[in-house]
Automatic annotation (TrEMBL):
It comes from Dulcicalothrix desertica PCC 7102. Gene3D superfamilies: ABC transporter type 1, transmembrane domain, P-loop containing nucleotide triphosphate hydrolases. The lineage of its organism: Bacteria, Bacillati, Cyanobacteriota, Cyanophyceae, Nostocales. This is ABC transporter ATP-binding protein. Residues 318-555 form the ABC transporter domain. Residues 2-284 form the ABC transmembrane type-1 domain. It is a multi-pass membrane protein. Its main location: membrane.
């Protein structure tokens, strides 16, 4: 920016000197018939033109470089922030919204930094220097000229006041449009299955139409400002030529002075127009900056407390003490007065009807959310007193939906431990009962998955996700319905590996399970109903519980159906 400003200042200096050269050339050279002065003047004018070219280039090059760097920094800042924003934030914001901020909004800011900052800066400096010079040259003529500034200021100010809302609306509409696009790309199968292509096209087209309408409004308001400013500048030129011409005729002003004055006029009107042009970009960029900084400044709910404790080693004891939890936008508690203890090395299972809070319980352990009241403790420490990193490094989680990243299968399994040797990766894959499948692929562990790679079934993805977690150094393993997408036989295989793992690693396992068959040998089964812990015990102990028996009976029926099919 310093380079750009220096170039700009030099450019302005040359621009300020040039009319004086004309004046000198005309009054001292042409009028007095002194050819030597005319030649010298011509030479200086050529040098001034070369300098102008050089410094114009420097100014725009450095400004553009600055703007690219600003965009680079903002993109990095916003991405870093997205990595640390809490789950609550993502429940409220669609990724389409975030994508628009990272792309289109940052681009608006880049344009502003690349062009408008210097335009305004140079405009102001040119205006002040030119105004001072013309005031010294002929104050009467200068006052007529300078009259244009408050009038133009009023026009630009009104433009800002009336239209900043409109520019914000355009960016919001663009974000909504991207939201629909994103939803449709993710849910393309649902759209096809329900034959909703036409109505989705209509929905997108309507939103796109609204965006077009708003964009046209901005085009109209932008285009309306400039003719008014041009008209103003023409009036001023007219006034200067009229009044100045009379002054020359009355011998109050030399012809050279009038020519020089007329040149300065351009340096007064041009900045006014320049600032007018910039005002559109500034209004758009300011709306975009507001949206970008909304993300960058968003409060991160889950963060380290002052003087947090680093959990160096973890035995794996998990306690819930009178835990109440309510999602921010919900009216009722998802969990109420939940208390239980899972001892180190125990295998605990959480069961219950759908929507009773099973996933919510496990989300509280690695602090994806914080409890509303009560406490979650690990080895006796309130999880909120531990550093988030050390807490999560001891908790391995396999989610319901297995998200893989684009890259090789090996990269995906080694996601949290990139330096893991291949034999460890294979061991993890064997644990998740996916090694046979991977080995059968032509490229084995180097097979590319994700956008440009092979497609995997839901169960295969889930097993790779299990292997990814198994490879980490956890003391508490959370499996959130992670075998729901695999068949009963594979689930049993994974279950056997799990038993083996618990024996070898002495880790605590907390499993949310739909299939009761996979948790028969759990040390402790927590039975949830409508956010409350209604019973706990072993499978045999819970058989007498009505709800447990009902869930079991419904599953046996389903199991029989699976066998038939
Ligand atoms: N982000 C959220 N905002 C508001 N309410 C939520 C949110 N997520 C879940 N809930 C509500 O909290 C309750 C518990 O949800 P949870 O996902 O823990 O149930 P679950 O027992 O794991 O269900 P399932 O077996 O269907 O996965 C549900 O009533 C659900 O509607």
């Amino acid at each position: 920016m310093l380079g750009a400003i220096t170039s700009l200042l030099l450019l302005i200096t040359i621009n300020a000197i040039t009319p004086q050269l004309f004046r000198w050339g005309i009054d001292q050279g042409i009028a007095k018939g002194n050819l030597d002065v005319v030649y010298k003047c011509a030479l200086f004018l050529v040098l001034a033109a070369v300098g102008r070219g050089l410094f114009s280039f420097g100014q725009s090059f450095f400004a553009e470089a600055t703007s690219q760097n600003v965009a680079y920094n903002l993109r990095n800042q916003i991405f870093t922030q997205t990595q640390y924003l809490s789950q609550n934030y993502y429940n409220r914001t669609t990724s389409g919204q975030l994508l628009t901020r990272v792309t289109s909004d940052i681009d608006q800011i880049r344009t502003f930094v690349g062009t408008s900052v210097l335009q305004v800066f140079s405009g102001l400096i040119t205006l002040v220097t030119s105004a001072t010079i013309v005031l010294v040259m002929n104050w009467k003529l200068a006052l007529i000229t300078l009259l244009s500034i408050p009038v133009a200021g009023f026009i630009v100010g009104r433009f800002f006041k009336n239209n900043s809302q409109l520019f914000r609306l355009v960016q919001t509409q663009l974000a909504n449009l991207n939201g629909v696009l994103e939803e449709n790309l993710l849910g393309v199968r649902v759209v096809k299955a329900f034959v909703r292509e036409k109505s989705e096209v209509l929905r997108y087209t309507n939103l796109n139409g609204e965006l077009l309408e708003s964009n046209m409004k901005t085009v109209r308001v932008l285009r309306n400002v400039f003719p008014v400013l041009f008209l103003l500048s023409n009036f001023i030129t007219l006034a200067v030529l009229g009044f100045g011409g009379a002054e020359v005729i009355n011998k109050q002003l030399s012809l050279g002075e009038l020519v020089a004055f007329n040149s300065y006029l351009a340096f007064i009107i041009q900045p006014v127009l320049q600032i007018g042009f910039a005002s559109g970009v500034i209004a758009q960029a300011s709306a975009s900056a507001g949206r970008v900084y909304e993300v960058i400044d968003a409060q991160i709910d889950i963060h380290n407390r002052a003087n947090p404790i680093t959990l160096e080693t973890c035995a794996g004891k998990v306690e819930f003490e009178d835990v109440d939890f309510r999602y921010p936008e919900a009216n009722t508690n998802a969990l109420s007065k939940v208390s239980f203890t899972v001892k180190p090395g125990e295998f605990a299972a959480i069961v219950g009807m759908t929507g009773t809070g099973k996933s919510t319980i496990v989300n509280l352990i690695p602090r994806f959310y914080d409890v509303t009241s009560g406490a979650v403790r690990i080895d006796g420490y309130d999880v909120r007193d531990l550093t988030v990193d050390s807490l999560r490094s001891h908790v391995g989680v396999v989610f319901q939906d297995a998200t893989l990243f684009s890259g090789t299968i090996r990269d995906n399994i080694a996601y949290a431990v990139p330096e893991a040797p291949l034999d460890k990766i294979i061991e993890a894959a064997k644990f998740a009962a996916i090694d046979d499948f991977i080995s059968s692929l032509p490229d084995g562990y180097d097979t590319i998955v994700g956008e440009r790679g092979i497609g995997l079934s839901g169960g295969q993805k889930q097993r790779i996700a299990i292997a990814r977690t198994v490879l980490t150094d956890f003391s508490i393993l959370i499996l959130d319905d992670s075998t729901s997408a695999v068949d009963a036989k594979t689930a049993t295989l994974i279950q056997e590996s799990l038993n083996d793992l618990m024996r070898r690693r002495r880790c605590t396992v907390i499993m949310v399970a739909q299939r009761l068959s996979s948790i028969r040998n759990a040390d402790r089964i927590l039975l949830l109903d409508k956010g409350k812990l209604v019973a706990q015990g072993t499978h045999e102990e819970l058989l007498s519980n009505k709800l447990y028996a009902a869930i079991l009976a419904s599953q046996q029926k389903q199991g029989a159906l699976e066998n038939v099919s």
